[in-house]
Amino acid sequence: MNCIVRIRRRSQLPIELRWSAEPLHLGYNERMRRRFWLIPLAFLVFFGQPRSASSQTATLKAIHAEGMKTFTEEQVAALSGLSLNSQVGRQELQDAADLMLRSGYFAKVTYKFETHNDAVTATYHVEETPRLHVAYDNFPWFTDEELSTAIKSNLPFYDGTLPEGGTVVDLAGNSIASFLTQHGLKAEVRHFVLSDPLLDVPVQQFQVEGVTQKITTIDFSDAALKENLAVQQHLGDIRGKNYSRLAIDLFLNEAIRPIYQQQGFLRAKIGPAEVRLSGNPNQKFPEDIAVYVPCTPGDIYQWKEVQWKGNAAVSTESLNQVVGMKSGDPANGMAIEGAWDRVRDAFGRLGYLDVKVTPTPHYDDQSHTVSYSVDIVEGKVYRYQEMTITGMSLAGERLIRDAWTIKPGEVLNKVAFEQFLSTLESHRDNIFKGLPVHYDTVGHWLQTDGDKGTVDVLLDFK
Known about the structure:
- By secondary structure, the protein is α/β, with parallel strands linked by helices.
- It has helices spanning about 30-45, 75-80, 90-105, 145-150, 165-180, 225, 230-235, 245-260, 315-325, 335-350, 395-405, 415-425, 430, and strands spanning about 1-5, 15-20, 60-65, 85-90, 105-115, 120-130, 130-135, 160, 190-195, 200-210, 215-220, 270, 275, 290-295, 295, 300-310, 355-365, 370-375, 385-390, 440-450, 455-460.
- It contains 13 helices and 21 strands.
């Protein structure tokens, strides 16, 4: 039986489809082949004629999302740039996926759609990228809250975190720049990922260029720091420099924290630094910056003990000797950090190049003692295979190989390797014996092969 179906599309001529009903005597395969032939035809009927299918649209009735960890479905829909009740086709749905990828929030975006009558429902499956906390470096005249509010004006669901890169990070920078312009400061705002020196985690930092406010004074709430000669000597490293939170945090981490750690103040709270405004309050951007650092030393701790887990190549007794601390000793934080480095060296001497040493402190606030549990993952033993040298004369290369004492097939002593590098960098005459050589740096790599348990030494002289 022949059937005729007329389909009228908005503002277009009717489409007329003709087909014959499947005779019952046809085999199953033939009937299925004819039915599958109708599937692409139905798609073309919905989105338009074959020659212009990509330009045909239908009404978007719903946007769904799945796979999120932190976003809501409404937020994903907003990031897609699509609007309900708008006309969309395959190109618009793909453009929305591309837009979400460019934002930086997602590592992968796929979509599917369903049609019913003259409406389409789109569902996006997303895989989110890691997000980093935001830090503001040199904006002394504005609070973090003010800068975050500026970002939220263009990115409503901004929560203090951003991806490593993408259009949303650029949008955040442009929002801050516009905020500065509104307050009479025209400057370029840039962003980059770096490691927070106090928290030791990566952050997305914003920095303004072209501002030259100077740190004139830096004061501490702890009176003992004010009288400490070492602190006074270090203040010259930062006074008179351009204001920068990053520079201040580095100063606190490298110059102030060790002073507390050496005395056993293992849980001292330092900072964050505050800006103390001075001068004419009507002047928006004074040049002098006074910095105040709140510090709470806390209690002094004593060493109690360490518990080891995962060590097989080096005995517990040997590790305790490497640490070199006894119960009741002052808990010198800097010495403790050095102890973990010596533990790594103990395994490195035996060829365990990938050893992981993870110490976890346990504080007893009543007895003011600290003990550690240390997890060790030894990894594999690596044996030396060969050395590759570039950037050195043949005569110099021969002397280097003569000075290298580890033979192929022997365990690579990592400490011996590092001592060899130190000699090449600082005591080169011990190796080259008067031979004129010209290099400034020694690039070095240990190229390991985990399957074979071998390691190649690569040296590059520049």
